[in-house]
Amino acid sequence: MSGRKTYKLSVLVTVEEPHRERLDAIEQQLRNAGLEVVDTSELGGIIAGDIEEEKLGSLAAVPGVANVEVDQSYTTEDEDPHS
């Protein structure tokens, strides 16, 4: 018996120019919203990461976020502890 499928998205989050001095704080807020941060470009103000599909909308609500772009999507299958 298989587990529950989770749809994850790889995203690129662009931080607005005036907020780039707060990149670390914004990165933490994105983590709190469910983003698994993979890489951060301080020069470009871009934070790359993975997030569950249903949490995607919460990223754009973080103050200082200019854009959230989906790079790719993939499916993971959670392990069923009863199988």
Biggest sheet overview? 4 strands, antiparallel
Overall number of strands: 4
Helix proportion range = 10-25%
> Rounded to an integer, what's the Rg over CA atoms?
14 Å
Organism: Sphingomonas naasensis
InterPro entries: S8pro/Inhibitor_I9_sf (IPR037045)
Protein name: Ketohydroxyglutarate aldolase
Keywords:
single chain, 2 helices, four-stranded antiparallel sheet, 83 residues, Alpha-Beta Plaits, elongated, alpha+beta, disordered C terminus
Short description, anyone?
This protein is α+β, with helices and mostly antiparallel strands and 83 residues long. Helix content is 18%, strand content 45%. InterPro entries: S8pro/Inhibitor_I9_sf.
How would you portray this structure in words?
Residues 79-83 have low confidence and may be disordered. It is elongated, with a radius of gyration of 14 Å. A hairpin with a 4-residue loop joins strand 2 and strand 3. It starts with a strand and ends in a 6-residue tail after the last strand. The chain has a four-stranded antiparallel beta sheet with strand order 2-3-1-4. It has a single domain (9-74), classed as Alpha-Beta Plaits, CATH 3.30.70. It has two helices and four strands. The protein is of the alpha+beta class and 83 residues long. InterPro entries: S8pro/Inhibitor_I9_sf (IPR037045). It comes from Sphingomonas naasensis.
Secondary structure elements and their pairing?
Elements: E1 5-15, H1 23-32, E2 36-41, E3 46-52, H2 56-60, E4 65-77
Antiparallel strand pairs: 1-3, 1-4, 2-3
